[in-house]
């Protein structure tokens, strides 16, 4: 799978997760995909939230690792 297809798949998954994050007043923005790492920016209520690490690792990262071949992690910037 080429990088453009991977990025499109990542964006599609983030769009499906967005309503759940929005429900708590936050948002997630795709920044880039590089060397197997997805870089996202957490926005709104997610900034400074104590649950941000859980949301990223147990939610966003777990789903992306399962659904998109080649992803090895998710990092918030």
Enter the CATH topology name. GMP Synthetase, Chain A, domain 3
User: How many strand units?
Assistant: 3
Instruction: Report the biggest beta sheet as strand number plus sense, adding barrel if it closes.
Output: 3 strands, mixed
Distance between the termini: 26 Å
Biggest sheet strand line-up: 1-2-3
Label the structural class: alpha+beta
Give the overall pLDDT as a whole number: 94
CATH architecture call: 2-Layer Sandwich
The fourth-level CATH homologous superfamily is: Fe-S cluster assembly (FSCA)
Instruction: Give the overall shape, derived from the CA principal axes.
Output: globular
Based on CA atoms alone, the radius of gyration comes out at: 12 Å
Percent of sequence in beta strands: 25-35%
CATH top level is Alpha Beta
List the helices and strands and how they pair.
Layout: H1 3-23, E1 26-34, E2 37-44, H2 52-67, E3 73-76
